[in-house]
Amino acid sequence: MMDGSKGPKRPPVLILLGPPGAGKGTQARMLSERFGFIQLSTGDLLRAAVVAGTDAGKRAKSVMEAGGLVSDNIVLAILADRLAEPDCANGVILDGVPRTTAQAKALDTLLANAGQSIDAALALEVDDVEMVVRIAGRFTCGACGEGYHDSFKAPKVEGVCDCCGAQDMKRRADDKAETVMARLDAYHAETAPLISYYEQRGVLWRIRAMGDIDEIAAKITGVVAAITA
Ligand SMILES: [Zn+2]
């Protein structure tokens, strides 16, 4: 769409951006099933490279064993190796990489060397306040694991599990409203530069991600169909 050249068809490279709780994992799986894209997340990439014992994998392993953070260069070297593997020929979805604009620029260079480029950055957008209500309202029965929600699925008798009758409701510390808000703030602070980077390149698609999962999937599918047509 942005690319005027009509070279040989190359595998699309998509980036999926979205805060925790926006359903990124679900949408990435949908894209894998529907289009045959391979989902590449930083964690999976690192683990696989360490297991495979590639050069970059060995470097990552020694950094991690020393308790350090694996550098952008190593992550990108691992990504470059991975993109060259045959199963990536249908296209890939990157999740968690790039993280910074420096990484995004390095990724552009890496892709350009392989005759590729970012085809779309899909930014899942949420309503922060509504997200906090959704996440902070969750709790589960400690006995049977049944899930509940203050607003959407309260037990019939407060504090008593509908399924097993236990009175052992648990809330995850991570789901506290302040924690969720802090996580969203951190996400926005980290991602805003990436969003504008991809917007300037004309590959950013903002996808409202508050509705029904299937509706969100349909929007994403529409974008992907358009850019791969
Ligand atoms: Zn229960």
From TrEMBL:
Annotated spans, NMP: 41-70
List of residues binding AMP: T42, R47, G68, L69, V70, Q103, R172, R183
Enzyme nomenclature, EC number: 2.7.4.3
Start and end residues of each Adenylate kinase active site lid domain: 138-174
Functional pathway: Purine metabolism; AMP biosynthesis via salvage pathway; AMP from ADP: step 1/1
Domain of life: Bacteria
InterPro entries, A to Z: Adenyl_kin_sub, Adenylat/UMP-CMP_kin, Adenylate_kinase_lid-dom, P-loop_NTPase
Record keyword Transferase present: yes
One Gene Ontology molecular-function label: ATP binding
Pfam families, per database record: ADK (PF00406), ADK_lid (PF05191)
Cellular component, GO, one term: cytoplasm
Summary of the function given for this chain in its UniProt record: Catalyzes the reversible transfer of the terminal phosphate group between ATP and AMP. Plays an important role in cellular energy homeostasis and in adenine nucleotide metabolism.
Domain notes: Consists of three domains, a large central CORE domain and two small peripheral domains, NMPbind and LID, which undergo movements during catalysis. The LID domain closes over the site of phosphoryl transfer upon ATP binding. Assembling and dissambling the active center during each catalytic cycle provides an effective means to prevent ATP hydrolysis. Some bacteria have evolved a zinc-coordinating structure that stabilizes the LID domain.
Protein name: Adenylate kinase
Lineage: Bacteria, Pseudomonadati, Pseudomonadota, Alphaproteobacteria, Rhodobacterales
Gene for this chain: adk_1
